[in-house]
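User: Um, what's this?
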Amino acid sequence: MDYDLVIIGAGWAGFNATLKAKALGLKAALIEKGQIGGTCLNRGCIPTKALIHSAKIYRLVKKASSFGIEIKDAPVINFLKIQERKDALIKQLSAGMQFMLKGIDFFKSPAEIVSNHEIKTADGILKAKFIMIASGSRPMELPSLKFDGRKILSSDDLLNIKNVPRSILIIGAGVIGCEFAGLFNALGSEVSMAEKMPQVLPGIDKEIARKLENIFKKSGIKITTNCDALALDLNAYELVLLCVGRVSQSENLGLEKLGIASEKGKVLVDQYLKTNIPNIYAAGDCTGGVMLAHYAAYQGELAADNIAHPDSQRGMGEVAVPSCIFTYPEIATVGLSEEQASSKGLKIKIHKFDFLGSGLARIMAETDGFIKIISDDSSTQVLGASIIGPSACELIGILTLAVSNRLTLSQIQKTIFAHPTLSESIAGSLKDSHAA
């Protein structure tokens, strides 16, 4: 069978690339050896947030009396039902994605690139003018600490446990580690965290990280930074979650035989997402860049667009990529942090608003946190923002728009935000700014 484009991997990069290719009039095929939706749908974004939302409801019900709602019996966690709900959501969304592929050839099979125009599948050889690799990533192990699926778990493994653990040690206080720490703390586990770096959430604005660490400690989570986890007694915990990052995966695709450049599993691409083989592209986590589902989707669509328009290709360039962390409270960032701006030698101004000053945050009884906006002192353009607090992951969309379009402080100040809302806190952070 002959195609304009064959895509390997039906995660967020491959799936969105396929839909884009179809919209652009390309005859495309999609190959996936596992489940449609890749990490995001099956082992990442969707299942973790489903579990976290159940924990949020449990947390809210426990403080219902403070809202004037009296519940006679104490709420009880039915973890199996929580897991069943998560699985049902994945199934529903998977069916929706499958429906969206109507009219596109989908092959559930391993794939091997046997030439720069041929891909071997269980159904035979597919021929293509262009090939896109979107094979994703997987949890990283340590040389001296391996996943065993029983005691030492990956984030994939942890999503499928049947009971809430009495105690859990989380090795790695990055995004994944902090989300699971908040989840199991809310569900009643004794949670301990070990992080080799000086702060939780390495790379995040230090003030935001300190705030979360203080909130975590107040909630009973034990945190040790500058810690060598291998020196700890793992037998003191019922479960150990090892989450020290993710690695690109491109094994068994035939890259070496064809001479496709890669480095430690990472498929090397240029700014147009092209590999060293002119008609072979790659997108998403397998390229080793920002490992976020929405960025993978952006890359997949961009690669498909570049394949369809070879004479007017667009590079990735510097784009504003929001990052969301579904802890309690939520954290979201975009653009430059205070530390990043300072390291670049930029003269900046910092604008802050504490959610204690928000009427709606007080109504919701979620006043922990603040908004922090970084602007260029000269041009007054918004360079970045960090938020910790209620609905941070929704609010960051407004500031992503500001960073992407190089909006100035005055353009935000002249915008009318509805009251009472959390979004008006963005304008509140700029009350003391006097930009022309």
